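Project outcomes to date are best conveyed with an example. Our students and postdoctoral researchers have been running inverse folding experiments weekly, and each run begins with a structure described purely in C-alpha cells. The record below, which covers 336 residues, was selected by the lab manager from last quarter's runs and is presented without edits.
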C-alpha cells in the first residue's frame, strides 16, 4: 500500500485515518469507557466511600550499565517514579519484552540523501529481523522529502517491507510526482507519523520510530514542539540513524539527539558499515529488556495538551554506585 500524507495548504490524495484519541506513555491508558465507569461507580458509592482509581499511566523504560549492557534484574523497590516532581505509588512493575512491537522505518529521500540511498536501503532492510521477532510485531515504511509518503502500511510480512524499502528513491527538483526531492520537511513527517500513522496500531503495543536522516529541515510548516509532542502523544520511542552526505551540510546531531532522548530512545551516527551491526544489536537489546511501571494517573492537572513531566531514577544505594543509565520518555499527555 502506497500513498501520500499531506497537511496544511498542500492537499492531494490522502490516506489519513484520523482517530480522535491520544495515548498516554506506555501505550495502554484507559480511555473514555473507563472514565465513564469510574463516574458511575462514584454515583453508586456512599459519599464517604471513595471510588477506585481506574486510569493508569504506563511507562516503558530501559536501564543499562557502564558498558551499555542491559540491566535485567531490577526490582520495584529499586526505582522511584515522579510526575511533575511528585513521587508516584507504583501499582505494577514488570518486564515487558513479550509485548508486540509496532515500528515505523522513516527514510529521508531528499536530494541530500541521493548518494546515500543505496546504503540506506541496505541498512533499513538489515533492521527488519531485529524489529520482526514475534508474530505480534509489525512495521511500516515511510519516505519523506517535501511530503511524507507511506510506502508500505503496517505488516508483519518482511518481503513486502523489503520491497517497499527497495522502492524508496529520490526525484530531482521540479519532477512531477508524489514527492519533491529538493526540500526536506522532517518536522512535518514526525507530526504526520505521530498523528496519522501510529494511531492505527493497537493500544497494547510498543511503538518505535527508526528515523534515518541527516536532520536537515528546509520546508516544514510544523514547529519542532508540535512535531515532538505528536510523537510523545503516540507514546513512541525514536531511534535515530544520523547519516549525511559530505557534499551537503553536515548531520544535525544536536537536533537528532534531542529527538531521541526526549522520547526515551537513542541516536547513532555511523560512518562505517562495520559499526552498523553493533548498533542493531543495541536496539534489539533495548527492545528486549524493557521494564513497565504503572501508577494511578493524577487527576485535575490541566487538559490533554498539557505535558506531564516524568522522572525515573535508581534509589537502591548499591545500584547507584554502578552509575546505571535510565532511559525513559521525558513526559506524556493525558488523554482528557
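After processing, the design step wrote out the following sequence:
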Amino acid at each position: 500500500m502506497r500513498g501520500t500524507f499531506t497537511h496544511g495548504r498542500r492537499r492531494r490524495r490522502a490516506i489519513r485515518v484520523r482517530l480522535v484519541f491520544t495515548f498516554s506513555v506506555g501505550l495502554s491508558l484507559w480511555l473514555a469507557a473507563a472514565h465513564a465507569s469510574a463516574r458511575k461507580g462514584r454515583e453508586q458509592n456512599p459519599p464517604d466511600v471513595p471510588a477506585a482509581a481506574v486510569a493508569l499511566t504506563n511507562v516503558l523504560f530501559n536501564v543499562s550499565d557502564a558498558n551499555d549492557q542491559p540491566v535485567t534484574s531490577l526490582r520495584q523497590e529499586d526505582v522511584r517514579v515522579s510526575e511533575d516532581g511528585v513521587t508516584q505509588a507504583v501499582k505494577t512493575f514488570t518486564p515487558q519484552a513479550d509485548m508486540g512491537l509496532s515500528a515505523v522505518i522513516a527514510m529521508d529521500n531528499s536530494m541530500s540523501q541521493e548518494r546515500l540511498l543505496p546504503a540506506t536501503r541496505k541498512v533499513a532492510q538489515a533492521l527488519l529481523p531485529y524489529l520482526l521477532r514475534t508474530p505480534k510485531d509489525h512495521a511500516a515504511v515511510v519516505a519523506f522529502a517535501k511530503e511524507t509518503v507511506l510506502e508500505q502500511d503496517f505488516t508483519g510480512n518482511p518481503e513486502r517491507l523489503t520491497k517497499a524499502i527497495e522502492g524508496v528513491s529520490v526525484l530531482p527538483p521540479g519532477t512531477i510526482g508524489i514527492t519533491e526531492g529538493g526540500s526536506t520537511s522532517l518536522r512535518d513527517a514526525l507530526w504526520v507519523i505521530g498523528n496519522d500513522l501510529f494511531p492505527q496500531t493497537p493500544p497494547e503495543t510498543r511503538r518505535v520510530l527508526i528515523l534515518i536522516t541527516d536532520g536537515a529541515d528546509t520546508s516544514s510548516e510544523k514547529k519542532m514542539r508540535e512535531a515532538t509532542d505528536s510523537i510523545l502523544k503516540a507514546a513512541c520511542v525514536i531511534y535515530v540513524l544520523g547519516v549525511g552526505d559530505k557534499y551537503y551540510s553536515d548531520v544535525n546531531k544536536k537536533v537528532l539527539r534531542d529527538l531521541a532522548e526526549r522520547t526515551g530512545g537513542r541516536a547513532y551516527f555511523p560512518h562505517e558499515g562495520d559499526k552498523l551491526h553493533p548498533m542493531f544489536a543495541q536496539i534489539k537489546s533495548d527492545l528486549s529488556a524493557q521494564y513497565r511501571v504503572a501508577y494511578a494517573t493524577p487527576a485535575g492537572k490541566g487538559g490533554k495538551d498539557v505535558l506531564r513531566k516524568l522522572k525515573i531514577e535508581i534509589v537502591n544505594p548499591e545500584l547507584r554506585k554502578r552509575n546505571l543509565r535510565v532511559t525513559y520518555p521525558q513526559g506524556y499527555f493525558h488523554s482528557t
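Confidence is low (pLDDT under 50) at residues 7-53, 173-181. The chain has eight helices and 15 strands. The training component of this project remains on track.
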